[in-house]
From TrEMBL:
One Gene Ontology cellular component: nucleus
Cellular location(s): Nucleus
Kinase as UniProt keyword: yes
SUPFAM superfamilies per UniProt: Protein kinase-like (PK-like) (SSF56112)
PROSITE patterns linked: PROTEIN_KINASE_ATP, PROTEIN_KINASE_DOM, PROTEIN_KINASE_ST
Amino acid composition bias (Basic residues), ranges on this chain: 434-443
Name of the protein this chain belongs to: Protein kinase domain-containing protein
Keyword Kinase: yes
Keywords assigned by UniProt, alphabetized: ATP-binding, Kinase, Nucleotide-binding, Nucleus, Serine/threonine-protein kinase, Transferase
Gene3D superfamilies in alphabetical order: Phosphorylase Kinase, domain 1 (3.30.200.20), Transferase(Phosphotransferase) domain 1 (1.10.510.10)
Reaction(s) this enzyme catalyzes, per UniProt: L-threonyl-[protein] + ATP = O-phospho-L-threonyl-[protein] + ADP + H(+); L-seryl-[protein] + ATP = O-phospho-L-seryl-[protein] + ADP + H(+)
A GO molecular-function annotation: ATP binding
Length: 467
């Protein structure tokens, strides 16, 4: 194999660098000299030098990655603080892909660290239930303000739906077999992540994709990061930011300021998604962290030392518990089982509501009349345990007895996908995080509700996708 392109590219870059830096007759002083050091050398124009460096990088070529012009953008299917996601077609093969634009406008320290993490992790996470990263490509910006700036795209295999968009469509009818299969896929993909020592940190229905073949895949690793598992309990645990996970899916330990969390924060998110498979909407929709804690207490019971011995060690426990309008009300009973018993439902192929997991209505097809799926509720109860130490690992949840009872999970839900003619995405149907963007007729303001002012978030910080 010839190595000619690589040295040529290096030679071109170094030559270009010397040319640009030496413009206007200004060169970097040698021998460690500084301006006004008495040597008579002209002062170093630092600003000009930085502009020359910026120009050099803007004009640089990237010979080892493809140009984004190889793909034809068809439509936008996602948007957030990370940037935009487009449905696109490869011009040479006709293959459908998803292009995720990496937001570079506010980056002052080079390529975003979150994008670097995402690329590195997805390269090692090759699994049927995790989205496949095909390549990274680049494109020159044509906008006047950012002319010649390079934009980078992550190219993913295209999935026809995300789970949030699918659940928001009342015409999509799911049987217990469909639900069990998708939850099995979800936990299997999460188990692969945790075995690879990676935290997802943004588990929610909108970040769960479903392919045309009916295979569920975890996606959006913009907040993911590797974690360190300490074998020695005497060694201090690693600290991470607690400003992660979309608010509706955020576990109580993060809401109370924990920074030494582990894989159980993802398990809580998986429990929220599992409940959402039946309720068809997020089960706890708080608009502030305090309100979210109140909703968790109302559904899962009061947070105290009886159910969670280490809760008093959380950084925000004293502040939260001593507040006159405390978001940690006491005396609340756990009503998750009774609430979900009435909300859970199964929809048959004919579109009519059939029995819930507890046999309340017409028996589900292929199931006995006295069918009661207590195992499903037991799994959900454990996933949504207040105490993170009492939640199962993804490995334990994958081996839960519920997945070994009839109806057994299938390899895919392609029969369900065949009944859905158009793609369903949270962004395009205007549900979930995008419900306040005027895309859906059900988005009506509450009576006498004051309009909230938008708080600007500094670039690079995490914004909750709650509107």
């Amino acid at each position: 194999m010839s190595s000619q392109p690589y040295p040529a590219a290096l030679h071109q870059s170094s030559t270009q660098s010397r040319t640009l830096i030496s413009q206007n007759g200004q060169n970097t002083p040698t021998g460690g000299g500084t301006p006004n050091s008495g040597t008579g050398a002209p002062e170093l124009d630092v600003r000009q030098q930085l502009l020359n460096y910026q120009k050099m990088f803007d004009q640089a070529a990237y010979p080892f990655i493809n140009d984004a012009s190889a793909y034809e953008k068809l439509s936008k299917i996602g948007q957030g603080t990370f940037g935009e996601v487009f449905k696109a077609r490869c011009k040479s093969t006709g293959r459908m892909v998803a292009l995720k634009k990496i937001l570079m406008a506010n980056e002052k320290e080079g390529f975003p660290i979150t994008a670097l993490r995402e690329v590195k992790m997805l390269e090692q996470l090759k699994h049927p239930n995790i989205i496949d990263l095909i390549e990274v490509c680049s494109a020159k910006s044509s906008a006047p303000a950012t002319k010649d700036r390079t934009t980078f795209y992550l190219v993913f295999s295209f999935c026809e739906h995300d789970l949030a968009g699918l659940l928001s469509n009342p015409k999509v009818r799911m049987s217990l077999l469909h639900i069990k299969t998708m939850i099995k896929h979800l936990i299997t993909g999460l188990n692969k992540l945790h075995r690879s020592k990676i935290l997802h940190r943004d588990m929610k229905a909108a970040n769960v994709l479903i392919s045309r073949e009916g295979v569920l895949k975890l996606a959006d690793f913009g907040l993911a990061r590797p974690f360190v598992q300490r074998e020695n309990s005497n060694v201090p645990r690693a600290l991470y930011t607690n400003r992660v996970v979309t608010l509706w899916y955020r576990p109580p330990e993060l809401l109370l300021g924990d920074r030494s969390y582990g894989t159980k924060i993802d398990v809580w998110g998986a429990g929220c998604i599992m409940a959402e498979m039946w309720t068809r909407q997020p089960i706890m929709q708080g608009d502030t962290e305090q309100r979210q804690l109140q909703l968790i207490s109302a559904l899962c019971g009061s947070i105290n030392q009886e159910v969670w011995p280490n809760c008093v060690k959380m950084p925000l426990w004293n502040v939260m518990s001593s507040d006159t309008n405390t978001p940690l009300p006491q005396g609340k009973k756990r009503v998750l089982r009774s609430k979900l018993r009435h909300l859970m439902r199964l929809d048959g192929p004919d579109g009519r509501s059939q029995s819930d997991p507890y046999g309340k209505g017409k028996p589900n097809e292929h199931l006995p009349a006295d069918f009661k799926d207590d195992d499903a509720m037991n799994l959900l109860e454990s996933l949504l345990a207040i105490d993170p130490d009492k939640r199962p690992t993804a490995d334990e949840a994958e081996d839960d007895i519920w997945f070994y009872k009839e109806p057994l999970p299938k390899a895919n839900v392609q029969d369900l996908m065949d009944t859905i003619p158009t793609s369903q995405f949270e962004y395009t149907v205007g549900k979930g995080a995008h419900a306040g963007r005027g895309r859906h007729h059900n988005n009506q303001p509450r009576p006498n509700q004051a309009q909230r002012q938008s708080n600007a978030i500094p670039a690079g910080q995490y914004r909750d996708t709650i509107f």
